[in-house]
Write a structure and sequence with these properties.
The chain has 483 residues and is an alpha+beta fold. The chain is built from 19 helices and eleven strands. It has a domain at 116-370 and 409-481: Cytochrome p450 (Orthogonal Bundle), CATH 1.10.630. The chain is 52% helix and 9% strand. A hairpin with a 2-residue loop joins strand 2 and strand 3. Bound molecules: protoporphyrin IX containing FE.
C-alpha cells in the first residue's frame, strides 16, 4: 500500500517500484513547496512582525487558545503596536494603539460584512446570497428602531417588564446566583419589549424554561459554534434549530400585534424591511441573539460592581432615592425617560462597566492588499483590535483595573480607544437600547430590593474573545423586598 512507504526502514531507491517512487517524489515536492510558502511568508521584510509557531497551518494556535487575551497582551509587549498571529490557518493582524484605529474603522480596504458573513451563516443558517441581500437593510432598521429618539419610550415598557419579572424570579427565601437572576429577568423583559408581550419564545413557563436552557448552551459555545461544522457540536446545533423554529412561530403569531405607537414590534419592522422573505425569521433570530447576548452580562456586571463597592453603592442608592422620592412601589410602576436622564451617576456606572467588560476582540476582513503603518498587509488577513485592552490603556484611563464611575463625570465619551460598541458604518445598532436597559435594570432592582452579598466579585472568563465576558463563579446574594 502507498502509505507503507513510511514504515520502510531504509530508503533504497532500488527497492521501490515506479508507482511508489512517484508518490514519494510527489510528497517531497508538496512538502518542499509548503515549506517555501511558509518561509516566504515570514520573510516578507515588509510584513508586520509575526508569531507563527513551528507547525505550518496550526501556527501559534495552542498557546493562543490557552489564554487568548493574555497572549495578545504579551505579543503586543514583545512586538509593539502591530503584529500578526498565525492561528489555525488564519492570519490575524492586531492593531493595539488606539491612535491607529482609523486603519480599522475608516478604511475602504477592510470590510465588516466579509468578516461576519460566514459566522452569521453558521449562527442562523443565512446563506451568503441572503446575507448580502439583506444585511445592510437589517442593520439600518435596527439602528432606526432602537435609536436615541425611539429608545426613551421603550424604557418604560422595559421597566414595567422588569418590575414583573423580578417578582417572578427573585427568591426571597434563600441566596441566589445573580447571573441566574439577571438572565431570568432580563431575557423575558427584553424579548417582550422587542418582540411583543405574549411572544412564544418566553410566554409560557415551560417554553421559557426550555428557552433558558437552550440559550445558555448556545451562548456558552457560541465561538466554537460559528466556526466548527455542526456535527462537532450537536447540542449547540440542536439549540440553534430550536430557536429557528420558535422564531418562525413568533413571526406567525406576533405579526400585527402590539401596534400602539409607543411600543415596538420588531416582527412587523423586520417583515416590512425584508419584504416578508422566507428568511425573515432567521434575521429575527440574529436580532434576538444580539439583543440579549451582550446586554444581559453587561447588566449583571454593573450590578455586581455596584454591590461590591461600598462608596459607589452609597452614591447610587442616594441618587435613586432622590430621583424616585414619590415611588409607589407597586407592581405597575415604571421608570420613564425623564427619570433615567436624572440618574447621571448611574449612567457613569454604565460607561465604566462597558469599559471594563467589553469584547475581547472585534475584526474586519482585509479585502485588498494594503499598507498599514508602512507594513504590507495581504488581502484575506483578518484585521483585529481588542476593546478589552484598549480600554485598559493607561494613557487614557488611570488605574485602569479600578471601577471608577467618577472618571466619566464631566467627561466626554469620545476617548481614543473607547470602542465598547465597535465603530464605523456597522457600529452596534443596539447601543442606545443596551445602555438604557443596563441603567433600567439596576435602578429597578434597587427600587424594589435591599440585598446582602455572600460572595467576592467573580473573575471574568478570559477564554472567550467575542462578547461581554461571563463570570467564572457564582455571585450569591439574598434579597428582601422594600416595604
Ligand atoms: C451593552 C450591550 C451591548 C454591547 C457591549 C454591544 C457590543 C457590540 C459590538 C462590539 C458589536 C460589533 C461592532 C463592530 O464590529 O464595529 C456589536 C454589533 C451588533 N450589535 Fe451590539 N452590543 C450591545 C447590545 C446590543 C443590543 C441591545 C442590540 C439589539 C438588537 C445589539 C445589536 C447588535 C447587532 C445587530 C450587531 C451587528 C451589527 C451588524 O451586523 O450590522 N447590540 N455589538
Amino acid at each position: 500500500m502507498w502509505f507503507d512507504i513510511w514504515r520502510e526502514p531504509t530508503f533504497t531507491l532500488g527497492k521501490l517500484n515506479s508507482f511508489e517512487l512517484d508518490i514519494r517524489t510527489g510528497l517531497i515536492f508538496i512538502f518542499s513547496v509548503l515549506i517555501l510558502i511558509y518561509f516566504e511568508r515570514y520573510h516578507d521584510k515588509k510584513a508586520p512582525p509575526s508569531c507563527g509557531g513551528w507547525i505550518p497551518w496550526l501556527g501559534c494556535a495552542v498557546q493562543f487558545g490557552k489564554q487568548p487575551l493574555g497572549f495578545i497582551k504579551r505579543k503586543s509587549q514583545e512586538f509593539g503596536s502591530i503584529f500578526t498571529l498565525y492561528v489555525a490557518g488564519e492570519r490575524l493582524t492586531f492593531l493595539t494603539d488606539p491612535k491607529d484605529f482609523h486603519y480599522f474603522f475608516d478604511n475602504s480596504d477592510v470590510d465588516f460584512q466579509q468578516a461576519v458573513q460566514v459566522p452569521v451563516q453558521n449562527l442562523a443558517s443565512i446563506s451568503r446570497t441572503q446575507f448580502y441581500k439583506y444585511h445592510t437593510k437589517l442593520h439600518d432598521m435596527v439602528k432606526g428602531r432602537l435609536g436615541p429618539v425611539r429608545v426613551g419610550p421603550l424604557g418604560s415598557t422595559l421597566s414595567g417588564q422588569l418590575n414583573q419579572q423580578f417578582d417572578k424570579h427573585i427568591d426571597l427565601t434563600e441566596p441566589q446566583d445573580l447571573m441566574m437572576i439577571t438572565r431570568r429577568s432580563m431575557y423575558a423583559s427584553v424579548l417582550n419589549t422587542l418582540f411583543g408581550e405574549g411572544n412564544p419564545l418566553v410566554h409560557e413557563k415551560a417554553d421559557y424554561e426550555e428557552f433558558l436552557k437552550r440559550f445558555i448552551t448556545f451562548d456558552n459555545d457560541f465561538e466554537l459554534g460559528v466556526k466548527l461544522p455542526s456535527i462537532f457540536l450537536p447540542k449547540w446545533t440542536a439549540a440553534k434549530n430550536y430557536f429557528l423554529k420558535r422564531m418562525a412561530l413568533t413571526f406567525q403569531q406576533m405579526r400585527g400585534q402590539n401596534t400602539q405607537s409607543d411600543k415596538l414590534n420588531m416582527v412587523d419592522a423586520l417583515w416590512d424591511k425584508l419584504d416578508g422573505d422566507e428568511v425573515t425569521h432567521k434575521f429575527g433570530m440574529l436580532v434576538m441573539f444580539a439583543s440579549i447576548a451582550n446586554g444581559v452580562p453587561a447588566a449583571y456586571w454593573m450590578l455586581t460592581y455596584i454591590l461590591t463597592n461600598e462608596i459607589v453603592r452609597e452614591k447610587v442608592l442616594k441618587e435613586i432615592n432622590d430621583v424616585f422620592k414619590d415611588w409607589q412601589g407597586n407592581g405597575d410602576c415604571t421608570i420613564d425617560e425623564e427619570d433615567l436622564k436624572k440618574l447621571t451617576y448611574l449612567k457613569c456606572c454604565v460607561y465604566e462597566t462597558i469599559r471594563l467588560r467589553s469584547e475581547g476582540i472585534i475584526g474586519r476582513k482585509v479585502v485588498k492588499d494594503t499598507q498599514i503603518k508602512g507594513y504590507n498587509v495581504a488581502a484575506g488577513t483578518m484585521l483585529m483590535i481588542s476593546p478589552y485592552w484598549s480600554h485598559r490603556d493607561e494613557r487614557y484611563f488611570t488605574e485602569p483595573e479600578m471601577f471608577k464611575p467618577e472618571r466619566w463625570e464631566n467627561s466626554n465619551t469620545d476617548i481614543p480607544g473607547f470602542v465598547a460598541f465597535g465603530g464605523g458604518r456597522y457600529q452596534c445598532p443596539g447601543r442606545w437600547f443596551g445602555m438604557m436597559s443596563m441603567q433600567t435594570f439596576v435602578a429597578m432592582f434597587f427600587l424594589k430590593y435591599t440585598c446582602t452579598v455572600h460572595s467576592p466579585i467573580p473573575a471574568p472568563s478570559l477564554i472567550h474573545l467575542i462578547g461581554v465576558q461571563h463570570p467564572t463563579s457564582e455571585f450569591l446574594i439574598s434579597c428582601s423586598k422594600k416595604a
